């Protein structure tokens, strides 16, 4: 993605987020963006659907079929603006940025645990309990599995990474030996 598009995504997400705070509808906009971005992703990944759907009428489709009674005028206008400016494909990225802003606003931390398999779940549960005791704000935990880390655990928290995997140690040894 180029810098102009990233700036555009940031501008859209910040504008929507500020508007949602003003109107006390953060969770509403989160829900709407989440559903609509899933629909958009499905439409753009499925080539057959693109042949049958006129993107200029997509806001009507969303209004009539996907979100019936829960949609408001401002959201329809937002979707219409994206469609008119040929920026509908940006909606999933706008949602991701909005989601980060929402997490920051509600002081929600997202922590990802990456391990080789489920045998580390007991250790992960112990770590989760310790984290919950230490931090009193809301925390979302996710477990992921990757075979290439060989053994150990990697913990991602926002921009911080704690890597206790064998693969990381092997890479460190390799770097040291290269001089």
UniProtKB/TrEMBL annotation:
Gene Ontology MF annotations: proton-transporting ATP synthase activity, rotational mechanism
Keywords: ATP synthesis, Cell membrane, CF(1), Hydrogen ion transport, Ion transport, Membrane, Transport
Gene3D superfamilies in UniProt: N-terminal domain of the delta subunit of the F1F0-ATP synthase
Keyword check for Transport: yes
InterPro entries: ATP_synth_OSCP/delta_N_sf, ATPase_OSCP/dsu
Signal sequence residues: none
Keyword Cell membrane: yes
Protein's membrane topology: Peripheral membrane protein
Function: This protein is part of the stalk that links CF(0) to CF(1). It either transmits conformational changes from CF(0) to CF(1) or is implicated in proton conduction.
NCBIfam families: ATP_synt_delta (TIGR01145)
Protein family (similarity comment): Belongs to the ATPase delta chain family.
Protein name, per record: ATP synthase subunit delta
Source organism of the structure: Candidatus Annandia adelgestsuga
